[in-house]
């Protein structure tokens, strides 16, 4: 019987590559998709399509917290816009940081993993793309792994752990890996803006464009013939 | 200006004592109450009353996860019943364990704490009452504190931490502390069964009774004149 894995799938590039990577490694993947009031909720339909294209199971969780605290969930706040790669890499925690998002997601993923008896939880976080998000850093993910080990039944039994295979990769390396795995890039969605087409100027669009440019690969999402279908 | 704290308030004895303790320490307390499909949802109205009696603010979060995996949330499963103190203390993780519950609650509490700029998150967990729940142990809570320190904005800035003031106390010590703080015991609710009166035979009722008995204090919840009003 194949080992089960819970994969956090946002609809973005990194989690799609992580999913295809986990499938190639032989895991029976259960995608966990979150609707948490994000302005770019178009990513949810992308996540669903990606899970389907990968032949993986999927589970949608709706979170309706009574507070916001982020420009990604509060339409009254401005998203960071038009920043350079250097500003994104070296700036303070941006307004698009969603407080404790990955801790909430990973907590719920731990619950799901216990329930289906999964061996691994996969998250596609990586340092270069973190935009200063503390909950995307390796030192955070290492500590969360200890939370699983100490605070869940399967973790205590040594049967569940967190893996983050992209953590040390650059965006261009992730694009290349995704291309080699046949990830349907045109199905992925990175833009924060909530518009019908990628805005090209939010942090997420800028980092994505850099990744494809440096990888020397065309971003099929931006190809009018294949995208947004 | 008083320092803000988020307090996890379940409606049970331990979190009520924790709340009154935090208020005595001078914190401006914001109670976080969860409706997560627990069969004993009567505890939610208890939590609301306790927060009100303490003069604290309150916030209710509804979690509707698409899986259960616990006899506390799945009415088709049997709760542990009629176990002795020894069986509760030394047995395996019981069916009433809700997978990763405290990790989910503490993740959401971290998000709330970031949003309201709180300095502390309080949880009333303690080892004796853990009934073998891994997410009530000190070693788990210590690691979760590191998650806050590494994975949240306020944590990285050294402005947010987790505190668990009851962790080393026995249930009888908690009852005595609560009595000294004026905790309205008759408003609290511990029973898992979901009935209108405490069943007296679930793990939670048994541990509560032991605590009051050893403290030599009457449990006002069981006094027909004051309880269940």
Write up this protein.
Two copies of one chain form a homodimer. Chain A is α/β, with parallel strands linked by helices and 229 residues long. Chain A has a single domain (4-222), classed as HUPs (Rossmann fold, 3-Layer(aba) Sandwich). Helices cover 38% and strands 11% of the residues of chain A. Chain A contains eight helices and five strands; from the N terminus they run E-H-E-H-E-H-H-E-H-H-E-H-H. In chain A, helix 1 packs across helix 7 (171-181). The longest helix of chain A has 16 residues, at 101-116. Chain A is globular, with a radius of gyration of 17 Å. The first copy, chain A, starts with a strand and ends in a 14-residue tail after the last helix. The mean pLDDT of chain A is 94. The A-B interface holds A 59-69, 93, 97-104, 106-108, 110-112, 114-116, 134-135, 137, 139-140, 143-144, 146-147, 150-153, 155-156 and B 59-69, 93, 97-104, 106-108, 110-112, 114-116, 134-135, 137, 139-140, 143-144, 146-147, 150-153, 155-156.
């Amino acid at each position: 019987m194949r080992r089960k894995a819970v994969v956090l799938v946002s609809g973005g590039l990194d989690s799609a590559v992580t999913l295809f990577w986990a499938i190639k490694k032989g895991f029976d993947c259960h995608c966990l998709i979150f609707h948490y009031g994000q302005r770019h909720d178009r990513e949810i339909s992308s996540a669903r399509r990606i899970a389907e294209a990968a032949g993986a199971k999927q589970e949608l969780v709706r979170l309706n917290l009574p507070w916001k605290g982020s420009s990604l969930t509060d339409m009254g706040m401005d998203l960071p816009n038009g920043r350079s790669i250097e500003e994104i890499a070296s700036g303070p925690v941006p307004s698009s940081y969603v407080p404790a998002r990955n801790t909430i997601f990973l907590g719920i993923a731990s619950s799901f993993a216990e329930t289906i008896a999964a061996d691994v939880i996969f998250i596609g976080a990586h340092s270069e793309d973190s935009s200063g998000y503390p909950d995307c850093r390796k030192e955070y993910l290492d500590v969360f792994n200890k939370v699983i080990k100490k605070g869940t039944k399967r973790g205590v039994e040594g049967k569940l752990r967190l893996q983050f295979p992209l953590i040390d990769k650059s965006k261009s390396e992730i694009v290349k890996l995704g291309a080699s795995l046949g990830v349907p890039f045109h199905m992925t969605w990175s833009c924060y803006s909530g518009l019908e087409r990628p805005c090209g100027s939010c942090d997420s669009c800028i980092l994505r464009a850099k990744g494809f440019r440096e990888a020397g690969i065309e971003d099929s999402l931006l190809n009018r013939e294949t995208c947004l279908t």
